[in-house]
Write a structure and sequence with these properties.
Blueprint (H helix, E strand, L loop, with lengths): L6 E3 L6 H11 L3 H5 L2 E9 L2 E4 H15 L2 E12 L2 E10 L5 E11 L2 E8 L1
Length: 119
């Protein structure tokens, strides 16, 4: 029987590609962040879906400039070798001022195939 319950891991145990994405995203380094995704990747954020490298790059550029905020990784979980959750606490000048977001990653061939961001 396959266990689908996420188990808590240390942030250092996240796969390298996720760490590289998170580091680039925090640094507003869109060029590096885009390289962590498969060519046909999808991102779901704030009710919108972004498909493919060009759309994901535009989403990253917009999200880097839309608001000013700090972001701290507060929890990491692994469901299996392809599914991870990285929870972040954000504080900034966006509506509400603070939020905890779960970044749900699906990996394929050591790249991010799918990223869903939700609260």
């Amino acid at each position: 029987m396959h266990d689908t319950q996420p188990r808590t891991i240390t942030p250092d145990d996240l796969p390298e590609v996720i760490t590289r994405y998170l580091t680039a995203h925090r640094a507003h380094d869109t060029a590096t962040a885009v390289t962590t995704f498969t060519d046909d990747a999808t991102v779901i954020d704030d009710g919108n879906t972004y498909q493919g490298s060009a759309a994901i790059g535009q989403w990253l550029d917009r999200s880097a400039t839309e608001f000013t905020y700090t972001i701290h990784l507060t929890n990491a979980q692994e469901t299996d070798t392809a599914h991870y959750i990285a929870t972040h606490h954000l504080e900034g000048n966006f509506p509400g001022g603070t939020i905890d977001l779960r970044y749900r990653f699906t990996l394929r061939d050591d790249l991010i195939e799918h990223l869903a961001i939700d609260s």
